Amino acid sequence: MKIIEDPKAIEAKSMQIIEEVANLDYAEREKKVVKRVIHATADFDFKDLIIIADEAIESGLKALKSGSNIVTDVNMLRAGINKRKLGALGGELECFISNEDVAKEAKELGITRSMMSMRKASKNPKNKIFSIGNAPTALFELMKLIEAGKVEPELIIGTPVGFVGAKESKAELEKLDIPFITVKGRKGGSSVAASITNALLYMT
Amino acid sequence: MKIIEDPKAIEAKSMQIIEEVANLDYAEREKKVVKRVIHATADFDFKDLIIIADEAIESGLKALKSGSNIVTDVNMLRAGINKRKLGALGGELECFISNEDVAKEAKELGITRSMMSMRKASKNPKNKIFSIGNAPTALFELMKLIEAGKVEPELIIGTPVGFVGAKESKAELEKLDIPFITVKGRKGGSSVAASITNALLYMT
Known about the structure:
2 copies of one chain form a homodimer.
Chain A: H1 7-21, H2 28-41, H3 46-49, E1 50-52, H4 56-65, E2 69-72, H5 75-80, H6 83-88, E3 93-94, H7 100-109, H8 113-121, E4 127-132, H9 136-147, E5 155-158, H10 166-175, E6 180-183, H11 190-203
Parallel strand pairs in A: 2-3, 2-4, 4-5, 5-6
Antiparallel strand pairs in A: 1-6
Helix pairs in contact in A: 1-2, 2-11, 7-8, 8-9, 9-10
């Protein structure tokens, strides 16, 4: 068997296969997002699950190009986002879940670290893109902060995964008047959020 | 709506739902692995895709308890593994993909960084567990190193994802006389490899 070893050739071939197998009924830029998620998961279900709000890609690209930071809920997602590409645009990757001050304040207030890290993130006006792949509590807290007028993201990539609160948090996100990209139902996770975020970075 | 906020309560409730929904025909320890993957992906397909070699869990637990390191192919997977738990057992998480020397030597030899990072990992006898969630080339290279007698892992968690080489690399892994955990077909990825690895760590 001939093994293709060049990472770029592997990716190009993969995207071609996805294009051929899936009948992707999306506009060009939206299709890039969906293809990258399928590329990262090999799960074609996502072609019917991903929801991209009308303004989402436009707003996300504008924010990226003006040097906005991206905030993630967990370190695994942060590690999966192309930091070099973001850095070249002037933005930084922020994730506060492991910060000692976040742990301390969360304990004092009796809330989760996920929630506390969103409160901390809301204080820096450069934090305009939120990528939340895991914790429904982080997404719920972000939406509360938005309602309270404490933060106004230019894009929320919200794909918490799982069986408790994930689906509900994403259904709430869909009602919001903030540009969002999400996934219906229980599926999602770090790999999904990372691939959506990277798809946008590669479009800048 | 009442939001459950306690992460431990969310996890317990999730595992209960998975148990109820899926009819998991696995032995007790194997079931813990499968449940954690479904927990991380909300994808019940995995119950029919995960393959756990007879000795795999026993061998992996023995290696972990004796302070072995875990090597990952990519940083995202490293970030998803419970480092504190591994550290308490005396092991370290190793990932060489971003090392400058690896990039330099890979270029000189005309191979991928994934392949070079496996060669580097093979040189430390503490590296007994390999968790490869993304790069088929890393898994192929590891198997070559095993054949050449240069490394003898006590467990390989091999779940490369995708459309080019992933399925083939995992089919090769199944033929190996080394304890392994893998996933049939195209599915896999960092979240899958991380949840399998963590399931083992939580069993120690």
